[in-house]
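Batch job 17 of 40 flagged for manual review because the log was empty.
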Amino acid sequence: MDVRRARRTLGALAVAAALVAWWPAFTLGAWGSVFFEQILMLWAAATAAFVVVLLKEGSQRLPRLLAASLLLPSVWLVGAVIPLDENSLLSDMVTWFGVGITLVGLPFMVWVILQVARPDVAEMVSVRTLVVAGVAVAVVVLLSFGLGRFNYVFLTCEDFRVSGNALPPNCAPGPASLG
């Protein structure tokens, strides 16, 4: 694989990571929460990736720490099923751990899958190219959070209702919208 092809692959990876991370960031901005199905989606992908890493043959093994990081969503899930006082610090910590692993974990998951499927890509591109890809994803996540937070500027309550979503507390009742 030549360097240009590796850059294109990394660019596609950045687009995929941004695509999977925008919705959790938007929901955090609009509702102040990452929805359970987003965290469980990450858990399912991480668990499948962990099994693939365990069963991968050959000399190109994923570093143990990186492989172990795939278990973080399972750690959250175990914490989430332990009965806790809803207003306790430990309960809040479990909730924010789930938010954190989702917002950081989804793009990271795409990276880990690339490491498993195409380890040569990271070896061929410069650190600058890797940073640019990471910044691109971070920009989309931050903008998505902002779009969620200020949804009332371009969406209405009806847009959320028609799409089957719950109404965020700050949705605009007015008629102007994208939909």
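Reviewer: the log was empty due to a logging misconfiguration, but the result itself is present. The chain has one domain: 3-151. Unflagging and moving on to job 18.
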